[in-house]
């Protein structure tokens, strides 16, 4: 192997010597001693909290730039559809968020938090949610994978590629990583195990023993286990909180006349053409609305959660949408909405809707799932949100959208 002095540098890790020695390749050409260097697209550093921290920071900055570029397009052309934003995310942002994840295994969460922040901010803005929204819905409503799971799945996919390739050097590298892990030394294989077990909800994933990592069938099973656990984790997050009660038990058409639970999918209501209506409905369904049962959930008592229109019942989605009579404009808009819904529903759908008259919450839940009425439901959600904002402006009760992220 030949070395090129002009392309070679020296990095000293750990304690720095008082007197830095001179390094050369024997031909009189001294090598530079550096603290940061880019090698094969990875920014390495011998200082700070980690050798690869500059790589994470650089990729987060590039992804953030692409996020702003897409935002600039939206400002010039108008709000883009969610489906298009998801495609742009996968084409322009995701490559930076997952760059090198097959090589740089995520063992320390703090190292890739900046990547996750770009991921969350973009999807929240695409859907129309605030920083108070729950995290699981960012994936269940768009079909995307949580970033931590996606990076690990790509690493497992790379292991499958290495096991299938005919390249001798790649096979030898995998064998060496497994041998080091078997003997108790840090290696790529041990880092992968740590990353899998660190996944939220992934602690019970059955990771292969060191010897089994060389079995293609066993790695395929590991990949399937991670995918299954990811969907189980997201489904449990949605079903386990009453904030998302409008989504509980939700099923999708399987194309064969039946229904099936689909954990991750671009939902039908996110295809509503009008962006204002679409975002208003998304905020209602995903519990990021401005009604008292959400904004005063943790800070307000029973009195403060009373309806600001009628000062009677609790200010919930079901009450404001279907019951409250405290404001004439709201009552008239509700009557118009009911006429519109009944005009687009089939006879069977109308019968089901009337059968739920005694349970307003179930009625709202049914209305939210009616594909034929999603456009008029989104418009109604927008008008109700506008009335709530008018009360806030008049009473000085507005809520800032800035705040800490919340997860239940």
TrEMBL record:
Q: Write out the entry's keywords from A to Z.
A: Membrane, Transmembrane, Transmembrane helix
Which residue windows are transmembrane per the record? 69-92
Q: Note whether Membrane occurs among the keywords.
A: yes
Task: Work out whether the entry's keyword set contains Transmembrane helix.
Answer: yes
Q: What is this protein called?
A: Reverse transcriptase
Taxonomic lineage: Eukaryota, Fungi, Dikarya, Basidiomycota, Agaricomycotina
């Amino acid at each position: 192997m030949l070395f090129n002095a002009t392309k070679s540098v020296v990095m000293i890790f750990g304690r720095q010597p008082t007197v830095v020695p001179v390094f050369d390749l024997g031909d009189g050409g001294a090598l530079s001693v550096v603290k940061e260097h880019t090698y094969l697209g990875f920014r390495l550093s011998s200082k700070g909290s980690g050798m690869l921290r500059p790589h994470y920071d650089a990729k987060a900055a590039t992804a953030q730039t692409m996020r702003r570029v897409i935002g600039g397009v939206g400002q010039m052309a108008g709000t883009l559809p969610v489906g298009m934003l998801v495609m742009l995310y996968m084409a322009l942002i995701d490559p930076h968020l997952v760059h090198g994840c097959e090589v740089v295994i995520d063992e320390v969460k703090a190292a890739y938090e900046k990547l996750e922040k770009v991921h969350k901010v973009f999807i929240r803005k695409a859907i129309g949610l605030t920083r108070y929204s729950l995290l699981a819905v960012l994936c269940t409503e768009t079909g995307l994978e949580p970033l931590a799971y996606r990076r690990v799945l790509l690493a497992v996919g790379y292991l499958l590629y290495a096991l299938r390739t005919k390249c001798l050097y790649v096979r030898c590298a995998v064998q060496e990583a497994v041998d080091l892990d078997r003997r108790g030394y840090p290696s790529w294989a041990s880092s992968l195990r740590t990353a899998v077990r660190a996944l939220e909800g992934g602690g019970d994933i059955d990771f292969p023993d060191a010897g089994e990592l060389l079995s293609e069938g066993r790695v395929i099973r590991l990949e399937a286990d991670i995918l299954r656990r990811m969907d189980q984790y997201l489904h449990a997050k949605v079903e386990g909180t009453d904030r998302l009660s409008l989504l509980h038990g939700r099923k999708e058409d399987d194309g064969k006349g039946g229904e099936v639970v689909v954990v991750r999918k671009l939902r039908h209501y996110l295809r509503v053409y009008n962006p204002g209506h679409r975002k208003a409905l998304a905020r209602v369904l995903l519990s990021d609305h401005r009604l008292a049962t959400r904004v005063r959930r943790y800070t307000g008592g029973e009195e403060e959660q009373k309806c600001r229109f009628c000062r009677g019942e609790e200010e919930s989605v079901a009450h404001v949408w279907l019951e409250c009579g405290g404001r004439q404009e709201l009552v008239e808009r509700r009557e118009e909405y009911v006429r519109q819904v009944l005009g687009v529903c089939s006879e069977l759908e109308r019968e089901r809707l009337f059968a739920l008259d005694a349970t307003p919450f179930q009625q709202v839940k049914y209305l939210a799932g009616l594909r034929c009425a999603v456009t008029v439901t989104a418009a109604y959600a927008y008008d109700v949100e506008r009335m709530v904002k008018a009360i806030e402006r008049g009473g000085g009760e507005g809520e800032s959208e800035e705040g800490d992220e919340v997860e239940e």
